[in-house]
Amino acid sequence: MIEIKKSNTSETTNKWDTIVIGAGAGGLATAICLSKAGQKVLVLEKHDVPGGWCHSFYLDGHRFTPGVHYVGLLEEGETTNNLYSGLGIASELTFFRMNPNGYEHCRLGDEKFDYPNNFDLLIERLQEKFPKEKKNIATYLNLIKTVSEEVQMIPHIKGFWNKLFMPYKTRHMGKHAPFTLNRIINRHIKDPLLKRILNIQCGDHALAPNKVSFLMHAGLMTHYFSGGFYPMGGGGALIKSMTNAIKRNNGEVWTSNGVQKILIEDASTKKAVGVELEDGRKIYANRIVSNTDPDITYKKLIGEKHLSKKLLKKLNKTKYSCTSLMLFMTIDYDLRKAGLDSGNIWMMPNRDENTFYAEMMNDDLTSDAPFEGMFISCTSLKDPSSFDGRYHTLEAITLVDYSPFEKFKNESEQRSQEYLDFKNLLTKKMLKGLETVIPNISKHIVQLELGTPITNEYYVNTTQGSIYGTEKSLWNIGPFAFKNKSEIENLYLCGSSVLSHGVAGASHSGVDTAAQILGCTSKDLIKPDPSQQVQLFDAEDDSNYPEWLQKKINLKRARAEAKV
Question: What is the value of pTM for the model shown?
């Protein structure tokens, strides 16, 4: 990462090929591809560290990452592995394979089910639990896999004859594209509990089955069919590898340099020529890439007067994903004895999931009732190198609507007492929910901090604290999503509202945007490099850890013991 001190001059005469606004995974992926192609690239980040949702932070020496909880398709030859290899960052990355017997633990009331990291075993395990649905389970999950594979095929279809037969090759995708997840799963699955288990990962796009696109959910499920992986060093390690790659290619990343305006040459040409920083400096470039969401990009940084009526209408109709509460905790307790492992825990009541999602968005947050739906993740079990032998780091998340926080959005860093009291109430509600999974956990908390939608807005700069960009309904994905290339000449977009969300989705969007700029395909930019290898180890089995990793773990524990 490269930082600069603020200049006393109002303009920077040094012109760049491309300026990227926002150092999230999408913006950094764009910058890597363009700088590898020889462009002079500058990434501007408002926060004091790069990463967006992928950044890591520390509380009293213990690391947390708000937006990285697992990544899929990291085995040799799979798409995320190829992505990191093609970006030239794979050899800097180490991932831990989460519990292969249950990288996802479903807790639906008193019912339990564990997702294994094997597609055939998942089918077998579900068929054993629901024998009456044996044929339906195989048919439905194979449909999920087929549709997802067809979606991924589209960008790589080349040549007249291949394009001619594309409708046939993608017939399953075409047939199911107009429908919600709810519509398709109801065609195939009858048992209500089985539906809830199969839909448990809806939390990964924060939309109920009756609203989310079936294609979006199919892609999400397929992303994890071979399991979940967690980066050693948290999301910050992934971001460090990306900023290192940009620096190697002579690009630069400036943190604490927020953009307040995208400069337009004149009203008639509508051509982006540079940016104006929050301190008034102006920096010029041949093109601008915005890694911020469409509302911020167009309405705040460009201004409505420069937008067409068609785009403005689309912006005004666009819905954003919901927001969240995130509880970050340091625990002085043996969480393995409490039943936790490296797998995620999805906790929900065993009742209609569409109704429950609606209830979450209309919940009276001022009551003292516990939150019933939560995602729970023990990062010190996912990343054994981060465990000091005593203190575990635990993250718990619940989805909420933004409206109860609207009145606090313009407060300064010195928060009002009303906000602090509300935050304290929400913390207690989350702890009550958490204790239904880990009884008496409150007695073992060393420190805790609650992130609210206001926190999301402040640190990640998202519209209404949204966690996944635009809402992943039928009208915000695929051909209806915001395009990489905007109607403003020389202005491009990348990130969760363009292609897909999540760590891998946002990164792929950045590659796609770079491909648009360079006039090639994304496949051209991320050709697997045999010299680049992601290191994969099992979080649950340290018997094959290399000497350097064992030393790293032992050193961390020795240092922790020395402080006692």
Answer: 0.92
